[in-house]
Amino acid sequence: MSFKKRYAVKYYYIGSKKYRGSQRQAGILTIEEVILKTLLKKGYITSSLDSKLEFASRTDKHVSARGACFAFSSEKNLHLMEINSALPRDIGAWCFAEVHNGFSPRHDAVQRHYRYIIHNTQDNIAQINIDLLKKALKKLEGTHDFRNFCKSEAELKDLKTKRTIDLASIQCKDDFLVFDFKSKGFLRQQVRRMTKKVIEVGIGAINLEEFLNLFDSSKNITYQPADPKGLVLWDVNYGEKIRFQIDQKSLVRMNSYFECKKNLYQLKCELFSILQENDAGQ
What we know:
The chain is α+β, with helices and mostly antiparallel strands and 282 residues long. Helices cover 26% and strands 26% of the residues.
């Protein structure tokens, strides 16, 4: 008699407009829905319930991921390229680990790592004060009530909004600013809202005192978060107890897709640069 093994799988996805976020929703195309249908098609599971299919994190529309994670139980030995063969190129599994039957990719995570990327010539970002921005980022670290840094919802009064930020940092890479945020767990839109406000500090739209007022949970401060297209779920960490194995063919698939897209957009960027030249017909 065969028995089920439980697997944790790391995967990437690109938050293109055809997906309505990652979480499954009836009648709507999402990242989770694509993965569920693929596992069913390839015979790894018979239903999401019987296989205890679970995802580590949920992301909004246009948000991408490199190291997201899901887990499922199956009688079939796992071959990532078999799964990848039925996935669209903008979604792909690239490493896995065999885990204990009670493993939860959501609750057993010890840390989640998000990155937010923004072009530093966007609007007035080029005039940003990096030192002041770093001061604001440092204030985010530690345990705080992030009620004013998350999406306002009807059930917010019952939501536990205290979180501990392990890291909030920035690096300048070529023409881009890259923010890194690490925590065991984030509230909905928290990373995008933290990014929005530290940028406002950096460009002088608000001062540091106004920024610190956001930690006052007795106040209700509303504003739009940063654009979701710049957000990446970079990794979900499970500590030393779980050792993920990289599948080399799947890694090549992932990197070749990224390289192809990078070249395509570099070509498009150069195309539009040329179109801006004013010597047509001369």
